[in-house]
Design goal:
Structural class: alpha+beta
Radius of gyration: 24 Å
Number of helices: 3
Largest sheet: 6 strands, antiparallel
Number of strands: 16
Distance between the termini: 69 Å
């Protein structure tokens, strides 16, 4: 065998060897699918943290693969993947539950080329006093987001986020926030576009008892963000949010020129003038013979 032949055999071995280690998105997804359960179910915090770090690095590896932006990751049942609604990005969020009842949150904004992404670093504890504060990707407060509503009004563009935070052993939080991404890719949370009974705020924060369920949703039939008003279970625990729960009253936020305007005590009864648009409520005279159409009455989906 001459020197030239040996050189080509050497190159072939390198090529075949490297090709053998290349992973498809399906193979990466299989690794992630196994890790997602260890993050929440491992017996110790250390094991959960280690599994989470491996998951994080494996997901970053996936972002470098062709076609990742449109890849569904359908087996990642514990990971939130929300499209922005306008094709600008996808938002991946998940949490790492600690044995003390608190959570660490992880998130990535992934842009259409798949290789360009921004990681959000959970380094702040959200409090009720943070409604007028701004956060960046480097000092994010951490949450699981479940709805994105893009807003574009007279050149102003931002994304309204609805999210959940497990807070601590006594209470949960829900959040309405505004995400901005400038032309250089700078990420900022908190834009003064939410009107409240106490004036304009950068976000709205709702804290309530751990065993309570609070509705906070974007409802297409109302073209508004609708939420249940929280109230203390008794006067003796007024201002202690761990003893707050949802009342029968609902407030709404309606978009007007880029600002979410507060509508106090939104009417959630059936509009008798147009019953066909009553997807968001319950009829005053239910038809017991009516067949369900499979839609959620709160979201219309």
């Amino acid at each position: 065998m001459n020197l030239k032949s040996s050189f080509f055999i050497f190159l072939a071995l390198i090529f075949c060897g490297s090709k053998g280690y290349a992973q498809t998105l399906q193979e990466i997804e299989a690794e992630l699918a196994a890790l997602q359960y260890k993050i929440g179910d491992a017996p110790t915090d250390q094991e959960r943290v280690e599994a989470n770090e491996t998951f994080r690095k494996t997901l970053i590896k996936a972002f470098g693969e062709e076609g990742v932006y449109d890849y569904p990751f359908s087996s990642l049942l514990k990971i939130g993947m929300l499209p922005s609604g306008d094709g600008a990005f996808k938002l991946f969020t998940w949490n790492l539950p600690k044995t003390d009842g608190t959570y660490t949150y992880c998130a990535f904004l992934v842009f259409p080329d798949g290789k360009d992404y921004t990681e959000l670093i959970d380094s702040e504890d959200l409090t009720m006093e943070d409604e007028s504060k701004t956060f960046t990707d480097k000092n994010w407060y951490g949450a699981l987001y479940y709805h994105i509503q893009p807003v574009k009004e007279k050149g102003d563009a931002y994304y309204t986020l609805l999210g959940w935070d497990g807070n601590n052993k006594l209470s949960n939080m829900k959040i309405i926030d505004a995400l901005e991404i400038d032309k250089r890719g700078k990420v900022e949370f908190g834009k003064p576009v939410f009107t409240t009974e106490n004036g304009i705020r950068n976000r709205q924060i709702f804290e309530y008892a751990k065993d309570a369920q609070m509705m906070l949703s974007y409802i297409p039939a109302k073209d508004a963000i609708v939420y249940q008003v929280l109230a203390a279970i008794s006067g003796a625990v007024e201002n202690n949010r761990a003893y707050y729960g949802p009342s029968s009253a609902h407030n709404a936020l309606r978009l007007n020129n880029g600002i979410w305007l507060l509508e106090v005590e939104t009417d959630m009864t059936q509009p008798k003038s147009d019953p066909n648009k009553a997807q968001f409520n319950f009829p005053s005279r239910p038809d017991l013979n009516r067949q369900r159409d499979g839609k959620n009455p709160l979201t219309g989906k």
